[in-house]
Design a protein that fits this description.
Blueprint (H helix, E strand, L loop, with lengths): L5 E2 L1 H14 L8 H5 L6 H8 L5 H18 L6 E2 L3 H9 L5 E4 L5 H9 L7 E4 H4 L3 H11 L7 E3 L2 H10 L3 E4 L11 E3 L2 H9 L2
Helix pairs in contact: 1-4, 3-4, 5-10, 8-9
Length: 200
């Protein structure tokens, strides 16, 4: 989702800072600091931002982040990357499309609702649904949907390593939030990805 289909970091900054302030934490995040954490599981982010806070209080903070985010959903203005909307429509005509993210439960639903693309995806999985790593959820989606030759498209080294653990090929989008040297193929734009797969 983030760094591959859209950039919604500005909304996340508001949600995180609102939650941190609400619960009395002196830490604040910036767009730059949060971008470096994109793609990580919630627990990893919390350990980095507030390492000395015990797990129960970290959980309270993340619950508050979700509440703050949901308040912002009606007015958020994420940047949808060029070529994504047209590309998804084309790819949907030839392939089974699924979504996977380390986001909270409901995060991918918010994306689909905001972009009005629910009908383009046959299934999705969010970290917040079962608190399992991407490698586990990649395998789950493969089995659940009887996928024969799935690939995972992402933008970070974490995406790459989790994809390898699942035994999938990894497609790297260079315009995203991270970097990696471990990929099977890379694209600089979503349109390039679309053209490649539509011509296979």
């Amino acid at each position: 989702m983030d760094g591959t289909l859209w950039d919604n970091v500005n909304t996340y900054v508001l949600a995180w800072n609102g939650a941190l302030e609400e619960l009395g934490h002196s830490v604040q995040v910036t767009r730059e600091s949060l971008m470096g954490l994109m793609g990580k599981e919630a627990r990893e982010i919390l350990k980095i931002l507030i390492p000395d806070v015990p797990a129960p209080k970290q959980d309270l903070l993340f619950d508050e982040v979700i509440l703050q985010y949901q308040k912002l959903v009606p007015t958020m203005k994420p940047v949808i990357y060029p070529g994504v909307m047209e590309g998804l429509q084309k790819l949907h005509s030839k392939y089974k499309l699924l979504l996977l993210s380390n986001c909270e439960e409901g995060g991918l639903v918010n994306l689909m609702n905001h972009t009005q693309t629910t009908h383009l995806f046959i299934d999705y999985m969010e970290h917040g649904q079962n608190n399992m790593p991407k490698s586990h959820n990649l395998k789950l989606l493969k089995e659940r949907n009887n996928l024969q030759h799935p690939v995972y498209i992402g933008d970070t080294d974490g995406d790459s390593s989790e994809t390898r653990l699942a035994g999938f090929p990894f497609v790297f989008m260079t315009y995203g939030f991270g970097s990696t040297n471990d990929f099977d193929i890379q694209f600089d734009t979503f349109s390039q990805l679309t053209d490649y797969y539509m011509n296979l």
